[in-house]
Amino acid sequence: xxxxxxxxxxxxxSRIDLDELMKxxxxxxxxxxxxxxxxxxxxxxxxxxxxxxxxxxxxxxxEDLHRWNQxxxxxxxxxxxxxxxxxxxxxxxxxxxxxxxxxxxTEPRSFIFMSEDALINPDKxxxxxxxxxxxRAGQWARRLIINEDLDSGTQIPYIKRAIEEGYGIIIxxxxxxxxxxxxxxxxxxxxxxxxxxxxxxxxxxxxxxxDTKKRRDFYEKYRNPQKEKETMQVFIRExxxxxxxxxxxxxxxxxxxxxxxxxxxxxxxxxxxxxELMIQRETxxxxxxxxxxxxxxxxxxxxxxxxxxxxxxxxxxxxxxxSSSEPLDTSVESMLPDCPRVSAGTERHELTSWNSxxxxxxxxxxAMEAKTSSGKAAPTRRSQRIRYEEL
Length: 391
Fold this sequence. Notes:
The protein is of the alpha/beta class and 391 residues long. It has a domain of 226 residues: Rossmann fold. 38% of the residues lie in helices and 15% in strands. The chain contains 16 helices and 13 strands. Strands 3-4-6-5-9-10-11-13-12 form a 9-stranded mixed β-sheet, sandwiched between helices. A two-stranded antiparallel ribbon has the order 1-2. Helix 12 crosses helix 13. It is globular, with a radius of gyration of 26 Å. One of its GO terms (cellular component) is nucleus. One of its GO terms (biological process) is regulation of alternative mRNA splicing, via spliceosome. This is ARB2 cotranscriptional regulator A. It comes from Pseudonaja textilis.
């Protein structure tokens, strides 16, 4: 092996021009806590625009400071989340319901959103489940909300149309799984005796020249110039993962609803969470759910060990609108023996829920009609090219 090109960390540090690095101090990680503070607002088309220039959001606000720009983007994302929550309550007239339902005052908790008639609507109930990551209740994709518009990035168009068509609504919040609390000093700095570090390694560290240590400390400070507070995660009881959350909401809300027909829209990891719910509550789900619309779902019936009965039910009652260059609703081949797959009419994963929006409502309408005419759940879709007529 040729070691001529191997450069040790010590050699690398010795070449750093400390004076030059000092000129690139990172600005404070302190950002506004309102849209107005960021000088942005949503226009009449639901697009995020700069108040003064009318320009879209700019990620690279400061050149060569990717970490700072990313932190700024994340801070804006938190404001967007609160803004969408406000829209759910004020425009969509949904109510916030906390989980676990029996949480103590001092206990970590999350929440979902429900329409007033969610549990008492005797006809139909729609459940919305987003993918995983930073998105929270009411959102499909933060990136779309910031860079495109509210219609494509949020669940609000689904909610408003569902309410117009007489559905009750329950919005899950599968990614709100824990709260972060600041670590105590004792937790941040374990005693040397409790360290698992070998004695030889500690001895080698002690022998590092002072000058090298100084340069290394400076480098670490430059790489992470503003040491953020150390936090730890405290998980929310029975809601510590998207799968747990879906099962909890099913047990305490959906299964208690009076709706004769439950319809589910699940995007990306939300589809996996639904399949896990199906596996864990098979009989209940089969009896209550009429149809499921998945959008670019990442579920896998083999890895999740879905049995033959679950797979057969999915083939008859589910459809997955996947990212594809084919026209909307065109049949797409699948290697998995589960539900039919059709094109969402876009190759962008995050846009699949928005693009398939009208098709999904027609899919639910057909499933309802088929069930009503036969008196029982009927096959709702086959693997074939489909062109819907406008209702």
